[in-house]
């Protein structure tokens, strides 16, 4: 379900298998298109404050994040403190996306189960109109004891 471009699909001829790692974290096949274009590291210094952040908190105040504390201005190739931070960040985003897609798939399956259950039970009008007269059945059945 909507997982295109989420997993690495590189084929390994030796094993006749496909690589199924998260694409941006796959060190063998991912070339890092985004970070190769950067001249400076640009790691937000607010993230290195030592405080643990949830996924939502990381992006909650996007513009303020850089305005308040700034970012790492070291040349990208020379910064060893924030090595491949963009790849880790995009990997975190992709994992969160995978979690959301899994949750969506579970909810769609549950919706399908509920709708099948509702369609087999019938609606209220059908239940109200379905009347069984026990007297008429007993008169037709000679073996019925009243």
UniProtKB/TrEMBL annotation:
GO terms for molecular function: DNA binding; zinc ion binding. It is found in: Nucleus. One of its GO terms (biological process) is positive regulation of DNA-templated transcription. This is CXXC-type zinc finger protein 1. InterPro entries: CpG-bd_C (IPR022056), Spp1/CFP1 (IPR037869). Its main location: nucleus. GO terms for cellular component: Set1C/COMPASS complex. Residues 4-128 form the CpG binding protein C-terminal domain. Keywords: DNA-binding, Metal-binding, Nucleus, Transcription, Transcription regulation, Zinc, Zinc-finger.
